[in-house]
Amino acid sequence: MSSISKKICLIGDFGVGKTSLIRRFVDRQFSDKYLSTVGVKISRKSLEVTDSEQPKHLTLQLLIWDIEGSSKFKGISASYFQGATGAILVGDVTRPESLENLSEHLQAFLKVNPKGKVAIALNKSDLIDSEYLEKYRQIYSFSDDSSFVATYASSAKTGTNVDNIFQSLAHSII
Ligand code: GDP
Ligand code: MG
């Protein structure tokens, strides 16, 4: 069984739930692998994924990059994005402005990684009605963009769709 590593980045405005999504996804099994560096945290998680070209399972180690704060987002974005094969763009459904900023984050990521893949997390879905969620999901699906993988309404609090976001991004980048 072969194993490969891929870097992915969490991107989004301050307070949308980037760190919480990573903790939910990673820490229930790998809490000791939460690594700290200056300004950036890198978590690791291994996933079993099926390679579309061969009917074989392969182990994918995700290196999940989390930026601390983001007031200086624009200044450090290029080096933060460097070498990433994918990104999860995170918005907060209770803060429409953080959703409107998603396409700007998308462009910034693609500028550095034109062939990167991107999944969208409309996070804190536990805080609003499902009819609004569906509306947001339609608006924030960048289906015309070849980088686009999927949009999910997620909740780091309840766990809703957290695995699905990481899994679908993982499948798209192998
Ligand atoms: P970051 O700045 O993007 O890393 O955001 P954090 O992960 O630090 O989360 C910011 C705040 O939002 C914290 O108080 C979290 O507890 C809260 N939060 C994050 N995700 C959710 C969620 O899905 N639902 C709710 N209700 N709160 C959340
Ligand atoms: Mg954070």
How would you explain this protein's 3D organization?
This protein is 34% helix and 31% strand. It has a single domain, classed as P-loop containing nucleotide triphosphate hydrolases (Rossmann fold), CATH 3.40.50. Residues 29-37 have low confidence and may be disordered. The chain contains 6 helices and 7 strands, in the order βαβββαβααβαβα. A 7-stranded mixed beta sheet has the order 2-3-4-1-5-6-7, with helices on both faces. The structure holds guanosine-5'-diphosphate and magnesium ion. Residues 12, 14-20, 123-124, 126-127, 155-157 line the site of guanosine-5'-diphosphate.
Topology of this protein?
Blueprint: E1 3-11, H1 18-30, E2 34-36, E3 40-50, E4 57-67, H2 73-81, E5 86-92, H3 96-100, H4 102-112, E6 117-123, H5 130-139, E7 148-153, H6 162-173
Parallel strand pairs: 1-4, 1-5, 5-6, 6-7
Antiparallel strand pairs: 2-3, 3-4
Question: Whole-Å distance between the termini?
Answer: 14 Å
Number of DSSP helical runs: 6
- Strand order within the widest sheet? 2-3-4-1-5-6-7
CATH hierarchy, class: Alpha Beta
Distinct ligand kinds: guanosine-5'-diphosphate, magnesium ion
